[in-house]
Amino acid sequence: MRIVLLGAPGSGKGTQGEKLVAHFGIPKISTGDALRAAVAAGTELGKKAKATMDAGQLVANEIVIGIVEERLGQPDARKGFILDGFPRNTAQAEVLDAMLLRLGQPSVDKAVHLAVTDEEIIKRLLERAHKEGRADDKEDVIRHRISVYNAETHPLLDYYEGQHKLVTVPGVGGLDEIFARIVGVLK
Length: 187
Hints:
Layout: E1 2-6, H1 13-24, E2 28-30, H2 31-41, H3 44-54, H4 61-72, E3 81-84, H5 90-102, E4 110-115, H6 118-132, H7 139-153, H8 155-162, E5 166-170, H9 175-186
Parallel strand pairs: 1-3, 1-4, 2-3, 4-5
């Protein structure tokens, strides 16, 4: 199973992705987690990404694409994967399609869109910022990230709809309830 998780920051992609990992036994590849790890480690990539992330901007395509291609080439991703945070625009989706072909892997099976209102996302991210002390989750930065998502990433819904791979799931309710909806549409 090759799954792309779509949804605005704070829609629950990370949480549901981890549940899908346990369910399907395939790795979750999160560009956000990989970038935050690079920032925490103080790597050259991390230093480049930190200023961009702190401002609520998206990290450069070539950095993200490099991280994803390296990860998809690893043995555990050959039987399937869950992508969280990539692709983030139609151009990246086209790169992903070509990348999978080049790696000798089948194309994406499903794009799962977690639909959550902007106000619910703001509420969730402000709560997370308070609990985790995340500097990138201030209200003005959150609103900017949502607007960037709506402008750049939201068109992916049309891209995957055109391939008959898009499934939209309401991303509100209990975690297990949302997970059951996702598994239901993946069958």
